[in-house]
Every structure is written in C-alpha cells, then in structure tokens.
Design brief:
The protein is α+β, with helices and mostly antiparallel strands and 78 residues long. It is 37% helix and 19% strand. It is built from 2 helices and 5 strands; from the N terminus they run ααβββββ. The chain has helices spanning 3-21, 27-36, and strands spanning 40-41, 55-57, 61-63, 69-71, 74-77. It has a 5-stranded antiparallel β-sheet with strand order 1-2-3-4-5, with no helix packed on it.
Length: 78
C-alpha cells in the first residue's frame, strides 16, 4: 500500500468518526436530506412500545423490524 492510500483511508476514517461523534444529533439526518432529499423520521419509540424497530422515511417508505420494505403502506419487497 502506498503512503497516499494510507493517508486517504485515515482521512475518510477520521471524517466518519467525526460524524458519528458529532454533538449535533441531526448531522447524519441532514446529510441524507442533502444527498437525496429524503430523511428518516425518528419516532423515539422504546423497546416494548408499538412501532419499535420500524424505520420511517419522509417519502412514505417504511422498513419493518424484519427487513420488509413498504411504500405508502403497500408491501414492496423483503
């Protein structure tokens, strides 16, 4: 591996670490909006509550805890 490759990998790892440790809880959500216009909707449900484990998105998509994909309430694939 060349020195440039190692420096590039280190820089990318540092950037990912910075995003993960950022004080702003919206950093990753806002990045998703900037990239594709779709953001995840965080419900704040806790284990044992209805809806726990589901992921909801601003385009009407949702993903069940077992990985099934729905769009506007209709099953798409999974």
């Amino acid at each position: 591996m060349k020195t440039n490759d190692i420096l590039l990998i280190a820089a990318v790892a540092a950037g990912v670490y910075w995003l993960a440790r950022s004080n702003s809880s919206n950093t990753i959500k806002n990045m998703g909006e900037a990239i594709n216009g779709i953001s995840e909707i965080f419900t704040g449900t806790k284990q044992g509550e209805t809806g726990y484990g589901w992921r909801y998105f601003s385009d009407g998509a949702s993903i069940s805890p077992d990985g099934k994909y729905y769009l506007n309430g209709e099953y798409v694939w999974g």
